[in-house]
Amino acid sequence: xxxxxxxxNLIRIENLCVNYGAKAVLHGVDLNVNAGxxxxxxxxxxxxxxxxLRAIIGATSPQKGKITLKDNLKIGYVPQRLNFDSSLPMTVxxxxxxxxxxxxxECFTALEKAGAPxxxxxxxxxxxxxxxxxxxxxxxxxxxxxxxxLDEATQGLDQPGSALFYKHIEDVRRETNCAxxxxxxxxxxxxxxxxxxxxxxxxxxCSGTPASVASDPEYKAMFGAGTxxxxxxxxxxxxxxxxxxxxxxxxxx
Length: 253
What we know:
This protein is an alpha/beta fold. The protein contains 9 helices and 9 strands. Strands 5-6-7-3-8-9 form a 6-stranded mixed sheet, sandwiched between helices. Strand 8 and strand 9 (204-208) form a beta hairpin. The radius of gyration is 18 Å and the shape is globular. 38% of the residues are buried. Mean pLDDT is 81; it is low at 1-6 and 227-253.
């Protein structure tokens, strides 16, 4: 279980520049993530969101800049999708043990934290897309990471499924004090789950609390009229502590 380290930088990014060939994908990006906080990166397609995560985990080499990770930082990673043949005759329990030296109790506890304890013995081929994403979340938290990186982990899920997944993310943060850095296109949910929002479009357009970002002119220019609804939902959740199943029209991302 992560300790109470809320004032400690887990990740510090300074002047990050990433190119693919001659194309600059990221330039001059500065970003810190502290222990225990949820930071969400939003932006249009092609804005460099996935490249940012790939640079952090070492899958992409930056052309310029510096990424500093806390000593012995444990990272859990939930990808957009996993290239895996779901028709293989394999139970969730067996899948959880792949590349993980864990016992049955640890496996079940991780699935419980991810909101999927009832599929422990199910065949991978028989579970839904939302359940499989929760299995990937459970695998990511097995090694008690200091930070979870989520790359649009709700892609392909419907709105209720996305909202439920984010609820489990909040539960994991509350129970373990793990920091979370996630890329998301679910603006209607982001504002109710994040401590900070980073608006990215090759560079950091704006950042801060959900309320401050939602009122920023650059954010409004990027996401249009849906901003008002996003902020209203954010305030609704925090003022009244309703669950994330409340329906709201998603901004045009």
